[in-house]
Amino acid sequence: MQDIQQLKYPAGKLTIPAEISEAQIKEYIATIAEFPQRVATEIKNLTEDELSSCHYRPEGWNIKQVLNHCIDSHMNSFIRFKLALTEENPTIRPYDETVWAELPDTLLYEVSESIQLLQSVHKRWVFLLNSLTAEQFTKTFVHPDGNEVVSLKENLCIYAWHCENHFLHIANAKKFKFPKD
Fold it and tell me: Which residues are CB-contacts of 48 (< 8 A; sequence separation ≥ 6)?
């Protein structure tokens, strides 16, 4: 049996470098740009039953939930970037991702449509990211959980990791096929 922490964090625990270089920013953007196609390729031949029944860990989400969580999370991140770019250190609004993962648009929506939405969100997000200056990447927002101030380059790092970790969740769900409980 796999270690539960390894199953939760197959990409390893998130580590944000103290200094984030321009080269790292480009790598993070590339990760975000490539993510939708990687996911589409990974789930391409799965049946509806496999998408809904294969979990990456015991009590974890199924593949459909992981995919749609990424859409929800990445849309929120895109908005957070725009808020930080247009307001002075705004406080963002968190959401309950666990509850969102149980909504009908997560559980029942057509996967091919979800992939299209993921691709569109990422295409526009990457366009924005590639247009930012080094100074703009230093802009910040406040996450109300702990009043944490997050710079856009830190948020970019977080979401590059988020993409990789959830891609590995999907790959692991296909491999391990844990039941829901």
Answer: 111
